[in-house]
Amino acid sequence: MKKSYLTIITLILLFLSISGCGTYGQASPSGDAGRQSQGGDDEQLITVGFSQVGAESDWRNINTDSMKESFCPENGYDLIYDDGQQKQHNQITAIRTFIQKDVDYIVLAPVIEDGWDTVLTEARDADIPVILVDRMVNVNDPDLFTCWVGSDFELEGSKVCEWLNGFCRANHISGSDINIVNIKGTEGASAELGRSKALRTAVNKYGWNLLDERSGEFTQAKGREVMTQFLKQHKNINVVYSENDNEAFGAIEAIEAEGRKVGSDIKHGEIMVLAFDGTSDQAVEAVRSGRITCIGECNPLHGPRVEKIIRNLSEGIVPDKYEYVDEGIFSADESVNSVIIDGVSYGVRVP
Ligand code: GYE
Questions:
Q1: Rounded to whole angstroms, how far apart are CA atoms 143 and 181?
Q2: Are the C-beta atoms of residues 46 and 1 closer than 8 Å to each other?
């Protein structure tokens, strides 16, 4: 019985890989938005132009795969994928290309919040609905986009900060002994704005010393570079607030290159690394081994969510304007079991 199930699953997987669902080529260079699908009955397919931020992090790559898997021809879509390479002007060019191609829907993961009014007005004038995914835009008229789906970044930040406060209380460490640096994400991106805001709130509330803040652009290389500078300039750092996993990996490299140890024993000279995402195997392993002490989860699997929105829209069903995804908090340290934010309790999980 089990064997025949396995055979059926194997056949389905084989069919999907032959037909292209879930197997895609390289992202096209920006401005030359390329179709991912080949052949099939294109007449029947819904055409979706997706302008992605880039490929800066593990989170982003998983998000891209999730989108490509959901918008495959077998699900009824012709996806035009464009990698913005972390540049807003590339994304604006991609959207204009989508408009010229007269796609049915535009999906935008905006690199930063500001600066979208003009191009989104052009999309509206062309009668093409725009669905935002992951980060937000800051526009004068919210009707310039149909809806948004993503994470509550400030809440993610508050979870990690409350965790640190709980850790301090459990280990009898006073707030004034916390010397923290912030490796920010891409400046002006929703994930950076929300997570940084939560940190500033906690710094004021708990009396931590925020020694420095600089952008690591959500990449490992830049995370390492920024942490190397921080270590040169500040001799008393005991906590690193890193706004994604990849920056944290870079920070750990920098700390270890200086001969220092990462971990939660800050009373005895270790440097505690806090991060966001928790998406890759490497991140999970880092939490389990204690090299990253705590991660605020950020869920990248938006493909099925956006696909459902577009399916509903094509059937005339109006989606919620804003859809927030549920997320948790990970740590292998046993000091804190749960954190409470705005009366809601979030359990701390060991991944
Ligand atoms: O945390 C980071 C990525 O916007 C939620 O972007 C996303 C962030 C994510 O590069 O790893």
A1: 38
A2: no
**From CA 275, how far away is CA 151, in angstroms rounded?**
15
CATH code that applies to domain 43-151+300-324: 3.40.50.2300
- The answer to whether domain 153-299+328-349 has CATH 3.40.50.2300 is yes
Q: Could you tell me if the CB of 249 is within 6 A of ligand 1?
A: no
Q: What tens-digit pLDDT sequence spans the chain (351 residues)?
A: 333 433 333 333 333 433 345 433 333 333 334 454 444 444 689 999 999 999 999 999 999 999 999 999 999 999 999 999 999 999 999 999 999 999 999 999 999 999 999 999 999 999 999 999 999 999 999 999 999 999 999 999 999 999 999 999 999 999 999 999 999 999 999 999 999 999 999 999 999 999 999 999 999 999 999 999 999 999 999 999 999 999 999 999 999 999 999 999 999 999 999 999 999 999 999 999 999 999 999 999 999 999 999 999 999 999 999 999 999 999 999 999 999 999 999 999 999
Instruction: Parse the chain into domains and list their residue ranges.
Output: 43-151+300-324, 153-299+328-349
Residue 215: beta bridge partners? 184
Domains 43-151+300-324 and 153-299+328-349 are alike in CATH topology: yes
Q: Ligand 1 pocket check: which of 152, 277, 297, 302 to mutate, most ligand atoms within 8 Å of Cβ?
A: 277
3-state class (DSSP) for residue 311: helix
Check pocket membership of 134 for ligand 1, CB cut-off 6 A: yes
